[in-house]
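sry for the spam today, last one i promise. struct tokens for design, 370 residues
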């Protein structure tokens, strides 16, 4: 088994930042025949075990196709949570990262929730340890605690609201209008964007996504100069200079919808490369260009593909169903405490469906011609 080291920056108790040496497994590369055999076997097992595959846009294209061919879904983190809760299957196989499996279990404790690889994590989750986060909240008892979905169940158990990138802006706007002061965790770029857009009084945790943090604004300007008619689509986990150049800022599903429904021919996309598979399927005539990162060829941090999403493989679906391994457990009382903040978000988006409209449709400033 090959593993790679993934440096994750996280806040330290002295107020600075420190680097945590995380790791990810590199999946094998089966032949086309072996890939087809594994897909067929996984489909058979899903049927036999009354299981449904709930996949994120960033996972292996074979898993995305398998999910759609077997009645599952490929979605952003909000839709994955809603789909898993509503679906009647007794087993959910969640292809994504750990917090997505935990959210599914919190919402559906009566279902068995399995994952292809339980070590698939997220730098935002790793960068926000529950004990240190609880101490941060305790130090600011007057603030409402809003956490991003990309956190552990224990962090959610300490929160008042959970949000995903598809509804974060609307929910924070709603709380700010009620005069509430907020703690925001863990993504500092998403937090900074929300604070700029809403004017909310928001005290941020200093986490970051190892993939989105690598997008570079100067190189993006160069690319926009070379493709003046391209629309720029940006996930809000990206740095401010990249977000500032976006025609649209949104969750993975909001970016996908824009490629499918938008009238431009060319799109520059600043999010994980895994989403190109679904974009190409649903908008075959459109030209898609990956937004530039700091150092082409400099390893996993610049490949625009999440090393933990990449750990999800068809073989993992086979293993977890055949052997009943990789089950997600969320002990009480953490589960019921975490449920409160997720339910609050789900109620909000049900009552305010407009909250899911993409977050900004505006022409960014033209790039400097020189
Ligand atoms: P979405 O909710 O937009 O799918 O984002 C999840 C994620 O992990 C982005 O990096
Ligand atoms: Fe976490 Fe970033 Fe991977 Fe999304 S892309 S799961 S935020 S590390």
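last one done:
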């Amino acid at each position: 088994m090959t593993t790679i080291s993934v440096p994750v920056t996280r806040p330290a108790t002295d107020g600075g930042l420190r680097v945590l040496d995380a790791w990810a497994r590199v999946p094998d590369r089966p032949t086309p025949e072996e890939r087809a055999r594994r897909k067929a076997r996984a489909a058979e097992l899903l049927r036999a075990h009354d299981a449904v595959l709930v996949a994120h846009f960033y996972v292996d294209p074979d898993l995305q196709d398998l999910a759609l061919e077997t009645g599952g879904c490929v979605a952003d983190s909000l839709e994955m949570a809603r789909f898993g809760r509503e679906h009647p299957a007794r087993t959910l196989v969640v292809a994504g990262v750990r917090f997505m499996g935990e959210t599914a279990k919190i919402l559906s404790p009566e279902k068995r929730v399995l994952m292809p690889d339980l070590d698939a994590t997220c730098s935002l989750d790793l960068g926000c340890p529950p004990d240190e986060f609880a101490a941060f909240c305790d130090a600011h008892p007057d603030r409402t605690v809003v956490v991003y979905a990309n956190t552990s169940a224990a962090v959610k158990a300490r929160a008042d609201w959970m949000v995903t990138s598809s509804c974060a802006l609307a929910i924070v706007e709603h709380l700010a209008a009620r005069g509430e002061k907020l703690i925001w965790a863990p993504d500092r770029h998403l937090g900074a964007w929300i604070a700029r857009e809403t004017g909310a009084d928001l005290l941020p945790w200093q986490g970051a996504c190892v993939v989105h943090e690598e997008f570079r604004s100067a190189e993006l300007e160069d690319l926009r100069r070379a493709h003046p008619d391209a629309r720029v689509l940006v996930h809000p986990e990206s740095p401010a200079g990249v977000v500032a150049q976006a025609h649209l800022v949104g969750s993975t599903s909001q970016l996908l919808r824009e490629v499918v429904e938008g009238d431009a021919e060319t799109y520059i996309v600043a999010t994980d490369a895994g989403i190109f598979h679904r974009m190409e399927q649903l908008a075959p005539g459109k030209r898609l260009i990956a937004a530039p990162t700091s150092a082409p060829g400099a390893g996993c941090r610049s490949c625009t593909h999440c090393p933990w999403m990449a750990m999800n493989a068809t073989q993992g679906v086979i293993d977890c169903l055949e052997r009943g391994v990789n089950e997600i457990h969320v002990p009480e009382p953490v589960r019921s405490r975490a449920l409160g903040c997720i339910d609050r978000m789900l109620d909000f988006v049900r009552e305010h469906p407009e909250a899911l409209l993409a977050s900004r449709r505006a022409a960014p400033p033209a790039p400097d011609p020189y």
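The pocket of iron/sulfur cluster (ligand 2) is lined by residues 97, 122-124, 150, 209-211, 237, 272, 306, 308-309 (CB under 6 Å). ok im logging off now
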